[in-house]
Amino acid sequence: MNRILDLDSKSAVTIFTLVTIPHDNPRQEIGLTDLENYISQAIWKTFDQCRSEAATRLEVDEADLLLTDARVMEIRIDGHPVINPHGFTGSKLDVVLAITMVKRDKFIKEADIILEGGSVRAHLLAKSQDIKEAIYIEIKDSITTIFRITPERIAYLSEFNWGEKELTKLLKEQLGLVDDDSAKGIHLRYVQGELSEKTIKKIDKVFYNAFSTFINGGVMALKNFLKPRAGSLPPIYLKSFFPMPANVYRKRFSFN
User: Fold this and answer.
1) Cβ burial, residue 6 (10 Å; 0-12/13-18/19+)
2) How far is it, in rounded angstroms, from Cα 57 to Cα 97?
3) What does the DSSP assignment read for the chain?
4) Cα separation of 209 and 256, whole Å?
5) pLDDT band at 172 (very low <50, low <70, confident <90, very high)
6) Which residues contact 28 (CB under 8 A, 6 or more apart)?
7) b/e code 73-103 from CB counts within 10 Å (16+ = b)
8) For residue range 47-97, what is the model confidence (pLDDT) as tens digits?
9) Whose CA is closest to 87, among 33, 18, 136, 7?
């Protein structure tokens, strides 16, 4: 049975990228052999450009990288999307590829479909909402991961330590709780508005003190990688894998 493995950004690298391949004879129709050659060129050109980045993130030598998946997501001829380029004429092909690389691992089977889940979710967000430029952020158990969406590329940008574990730890400390499950249960009731007004105000303070750490981490990551001017950041989309109070999505937080 084939497995679909949704891996984190330290275990797999999935990059969506636009590669331009010139058509040797612009007035001649693109044949099947031409198409196969152009797609092969695009895949290996992308792999060659991205393998150093992937090896650094996965902390392996480039020789230990494995290209596990290469998919054509879209093809354009002279800027016009086509379903099948066979029989068309034009001067260039723009090939949108999704390639996935992992480190060689005996637990990976040839039939497995391996993906860097966050990068794929960023791509699906961009396609479904027709987004050209954005920052997509995922918050999980202990790690916050940032992805950048541009017209030419969708890929991992950065990450920092912040997630549900930090919030749970603070709730335990501030409320005098002894175990994680109690803290998570109270947090869930807080998000659902099932606590008294006095208790909600108390947890508000704990939550937003913790959330300020997330804001600070996001600011540092965006400054380090994008060096944005005031007001120049693209829209920021946030996905949390644990419940967040509604105000997180209603309020605008300053990233300068």
Assistant:
1) middle
2) 20
3) ---EEEE-TTT-EEEEEEEEEE-SSTTSPPPHHHHHHHHHHHHHHHHHHHHHHHHHHHTS-GGGEEEEEEEEEEEEETTEEES--TT---SEEEEEEEEEEEE--TT--TT-EEEEHHHHHHHHHHHHHT-SSEEEEEE-SSEEEEEEE-SSEEEEEEEEE-SHHHHHHHHHHHHT-SSHHHHHHHHHHHHTT-S-HHHHHHHHHHHHHHHHHHHHHHHHHHHHHH-PPTT-PPPEEEEESS---HHHHHSPPP--
4) 19
5) very high
6) 89
7) eebbbeeeebeebeebebeebbbbbbbbbbb
8) 999 999 999 999 999 999 999 999 999 999 998 989 888 888 999 999 999
9) 33
Nearest alpha-carbon partner for 70 in 24, 30, 102, 103: 102
Task: State the distance between the two ends of the chain, measured CA to CA, in whole angstroms.
Answer: 49
- Record the tokens describing residue 38, joined without a space: 């152009």
Separation in Å, CA 5 to CA 11, 56, 108, 111, 177: 10, 21, 9, 11, 36
For tokens 């208790």, the residue is 199
Calpha distance 160→142 (Å, rounded):
9
Residue type, 23: H
Structure tokens, 222: 């965006």
Instruction: Write the single-letter amino acid at 11.
Output: S
Report the predicted TM-score, pTM, of the whole model to 2 decimal places: 0.90
